[in-house]
Write the structure tokens for this entry.
Amino acid sequence: MIVSSIDLTRLSPSRLIPVIEISDVAAAVPLAEALTEGGIPVAEITLRTPQAVESIERIRAALPDFRVGAGSLLNAAQVRRAADAGASFGVSPGLTPQLIEAARASDLPFIPGIATIGEVLQGLELGVERFKFFPAGNLGGVATLKAFAAPLAQTSAAFMPTGGITLDTLADYLAVPQVFAVGGSWIATRDQIAAGDFAGITERAAQAVSHVAR
Ligand code: 3PG
């Protein structure tokens, strides 16, 4: 059985997924509103801070149309916590059978991380079709992704590169046919969120969206 798959157009019409580290639950809803105003009604809240799960719950309660995902999921318990908090999707930097089984059991659309073709093949065998290519920049960027995509073209594998992506490189990644989205923390940085710079986040989101539209 395929792991619950994601409706990509609903996930992010712009194909951009801001990767968020949040340390103040009070910032969660204003952050989501700022991203929405900039044209990106989606975010991956990483479970790297103790405030992440409550932030997901608050966004879920206040903005039901916002697609809030949970990122940096490292084990099955975190997958279940993310699903219980109401996350629309889950992301992990890596791929293990336990993570995939937990996502399937929780009916959580899930994007595990891969850095090799072997991991992609293992994911396909386990019923996963969407993968986070991470850390994209360190792995050789668009050139490596294209080299992966060529032999995998006859499979259903699709990729979301993250790690080191900037405004200058995002269009090159999105031009690869197997890329369904691009993720990154530059759209809403930890410092911007901590400083309450929501206008700046809206501006960065709008700037990224306009780059994609070019
Ligand atoms: C992630 O978890 O996807 C990365 O930390 C995001 O990478 P970036 O900070 O280089 O955008």
